[in-house]
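Lab notebook, page 48
Experiment: co-folding of the full assembly
Goal: obtain a model of how the components sit together before planning crosslinking
Operator: M.T.
Materials (sequences as entered):
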Amino acid sequence: MSELIEKIGICVERGKVNKASPFPPDMKGLDGADEYTKLAIEAKTSADAILQACNDGMQRVGEKFGKNLVFVPELLMAAKAMHAVMAHLKPFFQSGTVKTKGTFILGTVAGDLHDIGKNLVSMVIEGNGWKVIDLGVDVKAPRFIQKISENPGCVVGLSALLTTTIANMANTIKEIKTTSPTTKVIVGGAPLTAGSAQEMGADGYARDPQAAVALLNSIGVS
Amino acid sequence: MKFNFPITELESDTFLIQPDSSVIDLSIDEIAEESGYERGMIPDYFRDIIAESIAQCRSISRPVCGYRILSVNKEHSSPESIAIGDIRFNCQKIVKARLNNADQVAIFSCTIGSEMETYASRCFEEGDAVKGHFADVIASAAVEFLTDLLHNHIAESILTQQLNVTNRFSPGYCGWPVSEQKTLFSFFPNDFCGIKVTDSSLMLPKKSTSGIIGIGSSVKREPYTCNRCSQKECTYRMYRASRSGGR
Ligand code: B1M
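Observation: model returned without errors.
Model output:
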């Protein structure tokens, strides 16, 4: 059983979705996350243990990404393998046997259209066991506030890539904190630094998706 | 490569070019390197996806670009700004230093349309994030490629007058406020290249560029340099530097 769990973790880390997938080349023709998860569930492996293996796999590929050992496509393949696992775990989430770590509401702030980085963050965080509500790009503060009220205890993530939209980010945080002072807000995006994030009142800054996961896991749910 | 397509002069010194999408000539290696991989190190699986997306881009994009040549008002300019008539672009020191000797400027915009954006979004929605990602990267590279072509075309078209061009600079780069994109577009006829500028000064379609190129007898185009930018980790930085011999 633990061997299956280990294999699921490796498939997620390496982005091996299923047997039919030719990626990665050295695992061509072998079973993937899809098949191993099916087997693990049949063998009555706990859904929590499967989820943990996925999180560990995502954690490892995220670390490699942070060190430039792999690039965005590998990260996306890992997320895809993770999704293959999640499809099997859906009934367990629905029945409440396993729970997500919390809800993460994510968006690129008003005035900014960049979404590649945000999409990556979304996939990696989801792969780490969070429910992610992605509001897209050019998201104005009231939209975040509305979603926060619908999802009590959620954490909010703001992304920006333009220096000019940093001001909008600061305003969004201010408006969120005014209506919902306990909601934690984390920020990320190329023009930001830990210092600027702190100045604008964010609860944390993440330079990449993996750092965002670490930050979220440390913040937890209120 | 040259533009072998009809160039329309819309107004005096304002030109519009609508090349065929097959003009977009991107190589798999180039996209792989831009994505971070060292030459030859990208897995074949990704190479195939890149090849498919490049073909898609060459078939569905709708490239349009154009420019307007304007005289510089040197008296109204400053070390941080360049003036056209009474209107000043606050392009900041780094850009202005490179435009200092320009007597004229070409302001330009380029787009490949929204088709690739839509295609990339569809790939994401259908669960193929890798394809969606490469489609997006390729679309960005395509508009940069188109901008390179336009830049070369402008350089060639003024060569007969013994004039040279500078590098190109865009609102949003090197401290030049992106909000001046609106000022830049105010020099173009309405709906130029089919690009709309949003309230926050971004262009729609997303895969669009705009900027300014200096023209004069004593200006020159230099290798692309990223060394003044604060984004040290950027993969584009290394890639671009290696392509142009700059840093
Ligand atoms: C919530 O928690 C978190 C945690 C982490 C988070 C997070 C949230 N969000 C992000 N992260 C982090 O995790 C991600 C993964 O590691 C990272 O996400 P990133 O999004 O940073 O990284 C992505 C995976 C890859 N990175 C990217 O996709 C962006 C790359 C760069 C080179 C870039 C590209 C590709 C493009 N661009 Co543009 N572009 C640049 C960019 C320079 C750069 N190096 O960032 C930038 C953003 N562009 C800029 C500009 C000015 C512009 N661009 C323009 C055009 C373009 C292209 C079309 C050529 C192309 C596509 C743009 C698009 N929207 O699709 C123009 C605008 C386009 C428009 N529609 O209006 C134009 C305005 C220029 C012009 N006038 O033509 C600059 C902004 C300057 C500024 N700081 O204000 C810029 C920094 C370039 C520069 N060197 O100056 C982290 O930041």
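Interpretation: Chain A has two domains: 2-95, 103-219.
Next step: discuss with group before ordering constructs.
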